[in-house]
Amino acid sequence: MLPDSVDTTLELLARADYVADRSLATVVYLALRMGRPLFLEGEAGVGKTEVAKVLAQGLDTRLVRLQCYEGLDVSSALYEWDYSRQMLEIRLAEASGVKSRQAIANELFSERFLLRRPLMQAIDFGDLPAPVLLIDELDRADEPFEAFLLEVLSDFQVSVPELGVFKAPTPPIVVLTSNRTREIHDAVKRRCLYHWIDYPEAERELEILRRKAPAAAQTLARQVVAFVQRLRTLELFKNPGIAESIEWCNAIVALDRSELDAPTADATLGALLKYQDDMARVRGAEAARILAELPAAMA
């Protein structure tokens, strides 16, 4: 059952351990209430993809994920014909004496040989509950693919020349994400409700760590949050996201540490930073300086 208010949307997300602020819960609620696709932009690792996952979990429905990449084409996103089975069918027809080419062709291009890819799965779901369709990292796909998506996002239907139009019986719940490596066309954005997810403030990030890294001592979790928040002010090549905060906290716990110190920070930076230049800048004196400032930051 869909949530009936912003508050119940917050509760739905929280039950799946997603700590959302009220602005995000509001746009999620509106997307569900209005049946509109939800377009989420923000830096990598701030929890955009997780929104789709927790919605599927919270609404007890399937998650259909389309991971975008350069060169993604319609056949990989929508449907393909099962060529190997079609060839086998041709040989069986020939062996059984079927002579009509049209009869064979009609059979070969029927739904029996249709391989449904993510977009088709999200639209042609029959009597099942409407799934959550995650179109992840749309900015990685080529611009022509965005144009192809317009029919899907506006009418929740797709066309297969040999079979006709497939239209969703009810609109699927659609979540699109972008890391903003390039601008998404306005035509796509017009069909969606838009929301920018920023890095969380310290209090919310601490609550996320409490839920996602429950084995971490309270002191360690607070140190990790304060350290990461400080790192995000250094204008690194790639700031650590929430996912990296969780991974770093879990890595420190795996070393049986209950507090953060300089040797541990240096040894585990690879869980937090993903570029050598950033690690070289932070490791050593910079990490020690940030650690020295933590007591004041945590006060």
Would you kindly provide a written description of the structure presented here, covering whatever features stand out?
The protein contains 15 helices and 9 strands. The strands form 3 sheets. It has a 5-stranded parallel β-sheet with strand order 2-5-8-1-9. A two-stranded antiparallel sheet has the order 3-4. It is elongated.
Mean pLDDT: 92
The H/E string reads: HHEHEHEHHEHEHEEEHEHHHHHH
Q: Please state the oligomeric state of the protein chains shown.
A: single chain
Radius of gyration: 24 Å
Strand order of the largest sheet: 2-5-8-1-9
Unreliable residue runs: none
Query: How much helical structure, as a percent, in the residues?
Result: 40-55%
Quick one: biggest sheet?
Answer: 5 strands, parallel
The shape is: elongated
- Count of distinct strands: 9
Number of helices: 15
Ends distance: 43 Å
The proportion of strand residues reads: 5-15%
Structural class comes to alpha/beta
